[in-house]
Amino acid sequence: xxxxxxxxxxxxxxxxxxxxxxxxxxxxxxxxxxxSCGLGARDVLxxxxxxxxxxxxxxxxxxxxxxxxxxxxxxxRRGYVAREALLRARDExxxxxxxxxxxxxxxxxxxxxxxxxEGREIGExxxxxxxxxxxxxxxxxxxxxxxxxxxxxxxxxxxxxxxxAEVTSLPFYIRS
Length: 176
Prior knowledge:
Layout: E1 2-3, E2 14-15, H1 19-31, H2 39-48, H3 83-92, E3 96-103, E4 114-117, E5 120-131, E6 136-144, E7 153-158, E8 161-168
Antiparallel strand pairs: 1-2, 3-6, 3-8, 4-5, 4-7, 5-6, 7-8
């Protein structure tokens, strides 16, 4: 099966093939000039596109409205799991929000680093990486909703040193 989908924000395809056919298909693609890349490249591309990584940026414990993906749920339908909690989050808002940020100081934010404001811990980085395309270091993380507005100054605790960052809109990059 060939699906015109992808997890990088770029135009692409995903091939779902039988395991015994995978090596032959891969070698045929390489022989025809396809270039390979690793998971690190895929992770940078998905981060630039603002795509979330389950287990990092969201989990079964994350409210979809906190993660900015509430538009994909329909809690008003009967029988919806966690219906009341989702309706409350949709109607009353959430306490924390996933935000994108750019590093304005020198440093790379990584998963698990603390997000600070005025010397106080307020959140946690979920993903971070240098962006070759944007020539900046970028990241995602959860902060209290009051700190989620674009332009809000933050600091990322990088090995005990606060490094300046700023909340920005997502996605970081849109393929034209």
